[in-house]
Design brief:
5 strands, alpha+beta, 25% strand, globular, 5-stranded mixed beta sheet, 5 helices
């Protein structure tokens, strides 16, 4: 999936280091349901098995800036708690600190919304946003 500035792409084995850093960054655990660190092995297995939203009930896509040469990963967007019976899922997004406030989260959300509603044919998406996360509430 591609927009003016971004590409949403599937996870690759080479992403394990970046995921390891993000998932073990306790400064952002409060934004998700993370309560314990992830091992590199667990993340490698996650990447290897993250191939079908209908089986795993979740999908993580990496957000790359395609204007960069080479493309640079600046975050990720997740569909989680995928419910094919009721055609709904949760959506979450994370953009790295230096790239926040540039509209990339909105642009990535537009791409994932299009995918969720027009490809997966979902009827509902929801997000859990803590009250102090003013950037996400706007």
């Amino acid at each position: 999936m591609k927009s003016k500035n971004l590409i949403l792409r599937a996870l690759e084995p080479a992403d394990v280091d970046i995921l390891y850093n993000w998932e073990n960054n306790t400064d952002i655990w409060h934004l998700s349901s993370t309560l314990t660190p992830f091992s590199r092995f667990a993340l490698e297995q996650y990447i290897l098995n993250a191939d079908d939203i209908f089986t795993s009930k979740q999908l993580r896509l990496m957000i790359d800036l395609h204007a960069e040469d080479p493309e640079r990963t600046i975050g990720c967007v997740d569909l989680f708690d995928f419910d094919p019976t009721h055609m709904r899922a949760g959506v979450g997004i994370m953009v790295i600190e230096p790239e926040r406030g540039k509209g990339y989260a909105s642009e990535a959300l537009d791409l994932i919304l299009d995918y969720a509603f027009n490809i997966l044919r979902l009827h509902q998406l929801y997000s859990n946003v803590i009250s102090g996360n003013t950037a996400s509430l706007e």
